[in-house]
């Protein structure tokens, strides 16, 4: 079974970092991803999704020192659901991505708008058991542009 999430997006605000009584460090931040599509009338639309991201221990400390509002970040992790009761006794539920890897994607200035990957961080094996410690290559990358949808496509589906 697989529970894996991969996101590339921009931070909505600086990470919120807490140090717990047991010494563990936790960072929480929101990540915005955008999807562009054409609606039925042919106009381009942009849909933004917000994702709650949680980082623990050394990865949380790294997030605190390197991530800032607006930063573009590549995040890998697992989907997690939590339930609790709020102060009024109401049952609450949230879905979060617990990250085990992130990479800052700094944008370079210039007219080309190119991006340069960098700043990756994998936690040590002491940080958390069963975490990914090396990048996993994606063997499903398109090798040609035969299946790439362009702006001229007649398909108005958002995927």
Describe the structure.
- This protein is mostly beta strands.
- It has a single domain (5-121), classed as Nucleic acid-binding proteins (OB fold (Dihydrolipoamide Acetyltransferase, E2P), Beta Barrel).
- Helix content is 6%, strand content 43%.
- It has one helix spanning 57-66, and strands at residues 5-11, 16-19, 25-38, 44-56, 72-85, 91-104, 120-121.
- The chain has a five-stranded mixed beta barrel with strand order 1-3-4-6-5.
CATH superfamily: Nucleic acid-binding proteins
Number of domains: 1
Q: Provide the CATH top-level class.
A: Mainly Beta
Structural class: mainly beta
Low-confidence stretches: 110-154
In short:
With 159 residues, the protein is mostly beta strands. The chain contains 1 helix and 7 strands. The longest helix is centred in the middle third of the chain and has 10 residues, at 57-66.
Salient structural properties:
mainly beta, 159 residues, globular, 5-stranded mixed β-barrel
Topology:
Layout: E1 5-11, E2 16-19, E3 25-38, E4 44-56, H1 57-66, E5 72-85, E6 91-104, E7 120-121
Parallel strand pairs: 4-6
Antiparallel strand pairs: 1-3, 1-5, 2-3, 3-4, 5-6, 6-7
